[in-house]
Write a structure and sequence with these properties.
Structural class: alpha/beta
Strand order of the largest sheet: 3-4-2-1-5-6-8-7
Largest sheet: 8 strands, mixed
Radius of gyration: 22 Å
Number of strands: 14
Bound molecules: 2'-deoxy-thymidine-beta-L-rhamnose
Number of helices: 15
CATH architecture of the largest domain: 3-Layer(aba) Sandwich
CATH superfamily of the largest domain: Glycogen Phosphorylase B
Mean pLDDT: 96
CATH class of the largest domain: Alpha Beta
Strand content: 15-25%
Low-confidence stretches: none
Helix content: 40-55%
Number of domains: 2
Length: 381
Amino acid sequence: MSMRWDIFCSVVDNYGDIGVTWRLARQLAAEHGLAVRLWVDDLRAFQRIRPQCDAASEAQWLEGVEVRHWSQRLPEVEPADVVIEAFACTLPEAFVAAMAARASRPLWLNLEYLSAEAWVTSCHGLPSPQANGLQKFFFFPGFVEGSGGLPRESDLLARRSRFQADPEARRAFLAGLGVEQWTGARLVSLFAYENAALPAWLDALAQAPERTQLLVPRGRIEADLLPWLGVDAAAQRDCWRRGNLQVHLLPFVSQDDYDRLLWSCDLNAVRGEDSFVRAQWAGRPLLWHIYQQEEGAHWDKLDAFLALYGEGLPPAAGAALVDCWHAWNGRGDMAQAWRALSSQMGFLSAHAQSWCATQASRPDLAAALVQFHRNWLSCAA
Ligand code: TRH
């Protein structure tokens, strides 16, 4: 009988919580033959990224995963062999009691947020004894050995490479989104929170000597985009030209199509956690709008990633990268920083590919979790 896993996801905000847990759930089922049950408290958020999800259903099967609505009162169920609490979403008390009461105790893991900060490897895998005698382990994804790795399906890079080697596949995909490629234009996708640096970037793109085609899935960034364009949200059009910049407002696409969008572009502006990782798997330069935390805690996280990611870049390209990511996140002049970054694009493109290859040489998050469980079982035996 295959091992059973429970994954709990509370959608705190946006789509990253469900984005990450859904990927993990389906990969554990598809590649490791596990019986996975995914508990989600907000199925409407799930439906945005996986339109086949029925937001009104208490229980449904999607790609071999049992998706359950995590409502106030959880039905009485036996906890699985491994229980993942994603991003410290507190498990229901009755469920924790049932975990403690199980004849063979489950492995309890708290899947943490992704960070490149150095302390991560010293905390990864540490146990935290709980009042009821159970242990909960901290599991940290990450970019370096000693962390839990990054979510990556085993066939992801092969699928991506096939797509990127096939201009017709890209043309057809973009055409399906209503985008016709503008001759000679650099293709850029934009996914971000409200961002005060956007107008300066758009000005720089519009005035640049080269053409840019900017593809923007609908979302929070419209609050800054539409005023710059001088149009209101009710406008029927979804394509505008300003100087050397063409802007396309796209529908919010499924998670799988979002990958294709990232693979299609020469540079991707991403945010949060999941789109940030997927842009790295696209093997193309990226611009990260990090989720702002209280007291500026996100700056340490941003700089830790930049320090790691920038290793091996020529100094001028490394400096341009840091300046532009800082400006995009609110520190510095975005127009100037963009021009500097733009002039380094050759180095940055080559670097994005080697970064992707290095990351892909490490065990992925799902494999690392399965291995952690095996080790734990052999220690307990
Ligand atoms: O939406 P996010 O800002 O979410 C995250 C999480 O909420 C996380 O808890 C919080 O800590 C964090 O913000 C920093 O960004 P993220 O993580 O990139 O998730 C977005 C998901 O949406 C990702 O799985 C890709 C998906 N997506 C689509 O499916 N279609 C789209 O059109 C777009 C733009 C994104």
